[in-house]
């Protein structure tokens, strides 16, 4: 008796999930003496500045960590605020990922009282644009992040005096793209490419279903993304039939290796305006194995054995916002097969 299996599609696809981030209940501006506070706070992802003004010594951590779990690429901007010249280390999940530039102390710049001199501002946008304030722009990929910030230099109150017992930092985070991949169609009906199935919703040995995977890239950065290139590849146990897209770029499709894994490249860089989207539909079907050189018997039908199978290894894109290089990728799209009752 032949084995028959039901197939249940699911997405091991972080990038197609809805955001799970919520805004912090407490005000964005915080102060106090809680050095190294470990209570986590949800990071706003709307581009609004969070300002922390806390009493500390050089080398202390600001209150935090600040966390998000986002299915999209996120831009994180950090700057010194109030009196120059604090310098910061940025940690993600306990790992150092960036150090902002070391800047001259305000007294070394030739100014007296810091509150009456130009190197003081309470406007984070002004500080970010002023080259005397230590700042940085970082990019974090999709997924969960836990950000901690350490002040490694607090300027002296006066030349040769005691350290100013206060550290101030401003930072903000904002998603740049929505990048999704999902199975939008599973069809066992007969088509021009496949023999189809018997209509019972079960992928049986010898049946050749069609799957349509849709990739969508949407620019939500507020700026144009330029010189975009996209890349994808399919598992060696899939046969591709047609690729439809509205991506303004040339496409190159080729195979490699014994299993003839399919590689797809949209290779001409294109520009995606803020709020605009591009998409591609990739139509594939499970191979009926030839049994040549891969350890499987001829006639073996892919995706009819129990377990999790990778239908697609994920799409990747790269591009630029201004001079800044950005990239992001989806996670694999998979199917899980269960034995039929």
Summarize the structure.
The chain is mainly β and 341 residues long. It is built from one helix and 25 strands. It has a five-stranded mixed β-sheet with strand order 2-4-13-6-11.
Give structural notes.
This protein is mainly β. The chain has 2 domains: 175 residues, Mu homology domain, subdomain B (Immunoglobulin-like, Sandwich); 133 residues, Jelly Rolls, CATH 2.60.120. The chain has 1 helix and 25 strands. β19 and β20 form a beta hairpin. The radius of gyration is 26 Å and the shape is elongated. The two termini are 14 Å apart.
Top keywords for this entry?
341 residues, mainly beta, Immunoglobulin-like, Jelly Rolls, 2 domains, 5-stranded mixed sheet, disordered N terminus
CATH superfamily of the largest domain: Mu homology domain, subdomain B
Q: What Rg, in angstroms, do the CA atoms define?
A: 26 Å
Amount of beta strand: over 45%
Whole-number total of structural domains: 2
At the first level of CATH, what is the class of the largest domain?
Answer: Mainly Beta
Sheet with most strands: strand arrangement: 2-4-13-6-11
CATH-defined architecture of the largest domain: Sandwich
Distance between the termini: 14 Å
The counted number of beta strands is: 25
Mean pLDDT figure: 78
General form: elongated
Q: Order of SSEs, N→C?
A: EEEEEEEEEEHEEEEEEEEEEEEEEE
For this structure, the CATH topology of the largest domain is Immunoglobulin-like
The helix-and-strand class reads mainly beta
